[in-house]
Amino acid sequence: MEKRIGLVGIGLVGTAMAGNLISAGFDVAGYDVVAARRQVLVEMGGAEASSARDAAEGKRCVILSLMTSDIVRQVLLGDGGVLSADPAPGTIIDTTTGDPDKTVAIAAECAGRGVDYLDATISGSSDMIAQRKGVFMVGGSAETFAACGEIFDALAERSIHVGPSGCGAKAKLAVNLIMGLNRAALAEGLVFAEKIGLDPAAFFDVARASFAYSRIMDVKGPKMLSGDFSTQGRLAQHAKDVDLILQCARNAGQGLPLSDVHKRILDAGIAAGEGDLDNSAIIQQLRRETVES
User: Fold this and answer.
1) How many contiguous H segments (helices) and E segments (strands) does the chain have?
2) For 227-242, what is each residue's pLDDT tens digit?
3) I need a labelling partner for 68 at 20 to 30 A (CA). Which of 94, 154, 197, 199 fits?
4) What are phi and psi of 209, to 5 degrees?
5) DSSP element (H, E) containing 31
6) In sequence order, which residues have a C-beta less than 8 Å from that of residue 226 and are 6 or more positions away?
7) What is the mean pLDDT of the chain?
8) Are 62 and 56 in contact (CB under 8 A)?
9) Cβ–Cβ contacts within 10 Å for residue 57, how many?
10) CATH number 3.40.50.720 is the correct assignment for the domain at 4-164
11) Could you tell me the fold of the domain covering 171-287?
């Protein structure tokens, strides 16, 4: 397989993916609007691109790691975008947590230009992705997914084809709903234990050994206990995801009462200036949720 890869978006997840690709012998040329992030890629052994189009020049595959579907559309189809490269890359792997309907529309526009598009969302923090412990949920053609097997193998131990275009985006939102509520429940349980006089660390050991256990405890529990909110995944980023979840649920005629409460708590944490902290910082807002005795 062609070993040259373009990458647009070199944030926490993009950097983690770049490291895995470089370690697997791929030549990675990357672009980000933030110059310092491009420099990080160079220091890792990648090449700096001057634009999204430049990152795509001469590449059969370009990976996107962006914030929203609207940004994806602009990066692909806007002036100086990926698909303005000559020739355009044959395959786009989009890891953005995006709007499923917009994802389907972008896939159709790519198909109209003869470009295969996979919405390949990821479950896992940037640290987990760097260790190849993330799980890819991939929507799009099964044949395109199979043809990109070497890339996915470099990125993660597990990649699952979940259906046609848009299904990767849908699966990511459903997974993030469960994962976010698990994280919030862990934070609330720790705050509750602390407030009623239990030693938080001792209680945490009990919780991990009990039927309350979830894998989120392994990743976020120590951060909540220590107050180390260095970023693996930003609280504001998860609030954006919950917005998308609630929007999709409304479109489907489904109420999500737990996610409604979760969003209120996340918004309060952001208002308190904690949006750029790790999403485990939700425990800070829950400590502020006091009532009169």
Assistant:
1) 14, 8
2) 999 999 899 999 999 9
3) 154
4) -90, -5
5) strand 27-31
6) none
7) 96
8) yes
9) 20
10) yes
11) N-(1-d-carboxylethyl)-l-norvaline Dehydrogenase; domain 2 (1.10.1040)
* Start-end of CATH 1.10.1040.10 domains in the chain: 171-287
The secondary structure of 244-271 as a DSSP string is HHHHHHHHTT---HHHHHHHHHHHHHHH
Tokens of 292: 């009169």
What is the spatial distance between Cα 126 and Cα 115, in angstroms, rounded to a whole number?
Answer: 28
Q: Residue 21 and residue 40: Cα distance in Å, rounded?
A: 15
Q: Are 1 and 21 in contact (CB under 8 A)?
A: no
**d(Cα 180, Cα 190) in Å, to the nearest integer?**
15
Q: In what order do the strands lie in the sheet with 135-139?
A: 47-48, 27-31, 4-8, 61-64, 91-94, 116-123, 135-139, 158-163
Structure tokens given for 253: 């005629």
Q: What is the DSSP letter of 203?
A: H
> What is residue 194's three-state secondary structure?
helix
Asked whether the beta carbons of 61 and 151 are under 8 A apart, the reply is: yes
- Separation CA 188–CA 183 (nearest Å): 9
Average pLDDT over residues 16-21: 98
State both tokens at 194.
């602390």
Can you give the length of the chain in residues?
A: 293
Q: Where in the chain is the domain with CATH 3.40.50.720?
A: 4-164
DSSP reduced 3-state for 241 = helix
Q: What is the pTM of this model?
A: 0.90
- Give the E-state strand segments of the chain in sequence order: 4-8, 27-31, 47-48, 61-64, 91-94, 116-123, 135-139, 158-163
The pLDDT confidence band at residue 2, using thresholds 50, 70 and 90, is confident
pLDDT (tens digit per residue) in 27-59: 999 999 999 999 999 999 999 999 999 999 999
